[in-house]
Amino acid sequence: xxxxxxxxxxxxxLDRAYGGGSAEPTRYALLETPRLAVFGCRFRGxxxxxxxxxxxxxxxxxAPYPLPNDRPFGDLGIGEEHPGDWRAPAERDxxxxxxxxxxxxxxxxxxxxxPASALPWQPADERPGWWDxxxxxxxxQAEVAACGGWDEVLAAVxxxxxxxxxxxxxxxxxxxxxxxxxxxxxxxxxxxxxxxLDGMTGAPADLETATVSGLVLARFHxxxxxxxxxxxxxxxxxxxxHLAGAYGEEVVLVSPGPADELERGWLFACTTRAYLASGDxxxxxxxxxxxxxxxxxxxxxxxxxxxxxxxxxxxxxxATDLPPPPAPGPASW
Length: 333
Description:
Layout: H1 3-18, E1 23-25, E2 31-32, E3 36-43, E4 54-58, E5 65-66, H2 91-97, H3 100-111, H4 130-138, E6 143-147, H5 150-159, E7 164-174, E8 177-178, E9 182-188, E10 194-198, E11 203-204, E12 212-221, H6 232-247, E13 251-254, E14 265-272, H7 273-278, E15 289-293, E16 301-302, H8 308-316
Antiparallel strand pairs: 1-3, 2-3, 3-4, 4-5, 6-12, 7-8, 7-9, 7-12, 9-10, 10-11, 13-14, 14-15, 15-16
């Protein structure tokens, strides 16, 4: 594929994603492999780079896609002689890998023990001024400073004392052009440790250096809320949050009370609103029992349909070799 044609394909994708003429690719590809060509991209006239600042145009004719915030150069086929049967990621897959912005907000909520899930990425998230909007909307008290390396980032968060937090903008370059960046979350815990988390993976972050051109730290302090007490009231609230997240408004608890307490948690009955209204057993929930562990870090779960009571008895006795409980199924089955 000729470079000019490849660039035209990149421009067409940017026009569809961000509106005709609002964003443009670099004049030439920054990197070419047997799989694809990579272009930097930016809004016209904008001084600030996009967070999703690179677009890949596959050589096999698959649709272009923005490189992911985490490991943007990990699946480009660098060093390969032939692309083989490689296929570009579908939009339903890549859209979550350019979502560092919303994932870092969810990570902040999770550190505060709050239920959180990342909102989906939208092209409008990339509009100029995204960094200032992120800080003003979620971390308005943050102090912003450029750091010379990861040691400086860790020291700044450590020096702030327990419950100091920071959002780290990882800025990357390819062939001298700023491309796709990342957002990570740093937290100074009560034990004096500083952890840097990747909200996209839910794991410790890769403190990369190879293509990093700069690190920007937005540091702030906020006390971490105390965990909820392990009592019936908090268990009911946790159960209701879990059901709302899994089923929306379709499923409710049935008469939770002190008799539902086990050694390690609570066993609550639940059912659908449709069943309560109709009394028709066809409207009943299949997974009609919900366990809420007393340990605040353990999420509520349903019991397996095969031999649930033996499984529950072993769990309550502290067994650690149990098969995992099932994921929530549909309320109407």
